[in-house]
Structure formats: C-alpha cells, structure tokens
Amino acid sequence: MAILKLTPSCKDYLWGGSRLRTDFGIKSDLDPLAEAWVLSCHPDGPSYLSDGSTLADYVAAHPGCLGTDCAKFEQFPILTKFIDAKNNLSIQVHPSNDYALKNEHQYGKTEMWYVLDCEPGAFLYYGFDHEISKEEFAERIQNNTLTEVLNAVPVHKGDCFFIPSGTLHAICKGIVVAEVQQNSNVTYRVYDYGRVGADGKPRALHIAKALEVTLREPPAKHDFGGQLAKCDYFTVDAVQGGFFGVAEEKSFVSVLITEGAGTLTCGEQKQDAQKGDSFLIEANSGAYALQGGCKALITTV
Questions:
Q1: Considering the chain, what percentage of its residues have pLDDT values greater than 70?
Q2: pLDDT at site 202
Q3: What is the pLDDT of residue 196?
Q4: Which pick of 48, 99, 119, 276 has the fewest CB atoms within 10 Å?
C-alpha cells in the first residue's frame, strides 16, 4: 500500500475552539477541539488507519516503509498537528534532546508553525526582544511582567516560524496553524495567565526546568532557500495542485491538505484529497502527483 490515509487523535485543551471541525473537517466530539494529531506515532495521541489500527502498528509490521533516512532514529521522527488557538496558549519552552532524554526519557522538540488562518491583529510570542539574564527571567516570571520583554510578532496567513528547542514561544488567540515537530510531548509552561484546568486548580508550571533550558535572547534568523523549514528531523515545503514529486527510498512523504480539494495519486492508487486530510506515502513508492485546486504541506525526513 503506497498511500495511507490517516485519522487523527484529538485534544480538548481549554484554549481550543471549533474551527478544526468546521473549517478542516476534523471529526471529533471534543469541545473545545484544540489539536488534531494528523501524523503521529506518539503514544499520547496516535494516528489511525481506516481499519482502526495505528500508524505505529503499520510501521512496525512494514520495516522499511519509512525510508533509509529514518533508520537513524530510534522512533518515528516527527509529529504533525493542526492547532486552533481560540485563546492564548501558555508561554512555554521545549528542551533539547540531551536535556529531555536525561530528564524526561523522551526526545526534545524543535518545531515549525505554518499559519493557516488568523484573525485581524493576531500575534504570537517568538523568543525575547532583547537578551536578558537568567535572574531577570526568573524575576519577570515571578512578578508577571514576562510579556514585556517577549518578541511579539504580528501574523498573517502563510507566515512560517521555525522554533528550535530552547526558544520561548506562545501561539496567541485567533490563530490556526499546522505544526511539524519532533516526535515529543515535552512542554515546560512558564506563564499561563492564571488559568485553572478542568479540576479547578491552576495548571502546572515548570519554571525550574524552563530556567535551565530557555535561550534568553532574540530568535536567530533562518533562510531555508525557498523551503518552509529544514533541519535534522524534517524538511517542509508548501505546494499546490499541479505538483509532482517522488517518494524516494530515503524517506516517506507526508501530504497534509491545508486548503481546497483535489486528488493524490501514486502508482495505481488515487485518493480524493480534502482540506484537513493527512496522507503518508511510503518510501520508495515512486512518482506521485497532487492535482486540483488544493494546497498542501509536503514533509520528508
């Protein structure tokens, strides 16, 4: 089977909304619907095949389907999500591989965001606006003035942000993104606007760990030569209908439909492709084509 159509696991975090259901066709009874993990082998939220088995099950049963470049990873290397931020996400940071493996027994997280839609005036936090000391960082967390030194960036549809581990960040209200990240679920919350969870208690913060791993400086500029993002874990491109590619032996191909509708073909297989659909083309499947009036993110390892 060259093309796998995936069904996501979904999350009902308190800041979510309803747009993943109404705008992206994600089927879920959760309310709010905050995230859809559309390409995932993570046990906290696996993606499923049409027969109800998990993508992780399929990968285990089909050695080599991910490609030769994935052999260097101990686990499936990436995790892709839709995120609907009806309200602000917490200000947070993800640790590096070294720190996370030592302290959390899973990998760290480098990620990228691709803005699918946003309300007028929407912005997000992306690192600091100037370098600060560890002492000032701790003090501003304590006295609730952290946002005064963060880099607040206005966003527009089609914007892309590359977020290496250690970069303090937060998606703010009114933004819908596609996120491609390392296969990790380690997040250290630094500030959460005093919100309480479903149990009525303030949501947990992880300040001591955040102080250890956060880069207290403005984010570095990145030039990926026309690609949205490129790092050791993933390469992401934005394409539209009329796109032809090749699933080589090196890597599987993830196709995430972000707008419109069309068809995805590979060999003898042909799949209708609608906004919100997620597909995985196995490595070494050969030529594939995305046709019609749709747009997509193409991710490889």
A1: 100
A2: 87
A3: 84
A4: 119
Could you tell me if 168 and 214 are in contact, meaning their C-beta atoms sit under 8 angstroms apart? yes
Q: What is the pLDDT of residue 199?
A: 87
Cis peptide bond N-terminal to 164, omega within 30:
no
| CA distances from residue 256 to 105, 142, 178, 203, 297 in whole angstroms, order as listed | 29, 40, 9, 32, 5
- The pLDDT value recorded for residue 1 is 64
Task: Give the phi and the psi of residue 298 in degrees, each rounded to 5.
Answer: -105, 120
Assess whether 189 carries a catalytic annotation.
yes
pTM of the model: 0.96
- C-beta neighbour count of 93 within 10 angstroms: 26
Ramachandran area for residue 68 (φ above 0: left; ψ -120 to 50: alpha; else beta): alpha
Residues 6+ apart with CB under 8 A from 180: 78, 79, 80, 111, 112, 114, 229, 234, 236, 297, 299
Long-range contacts of 220-224 (CB under 8 A, 24+ apart): 220/164, 222/162, 224/162
Give every residue of the chain whose pLDDT is below 70, as ranges: 1
Distance between CA atoms of residues 60 and 23, nearest Å: 33
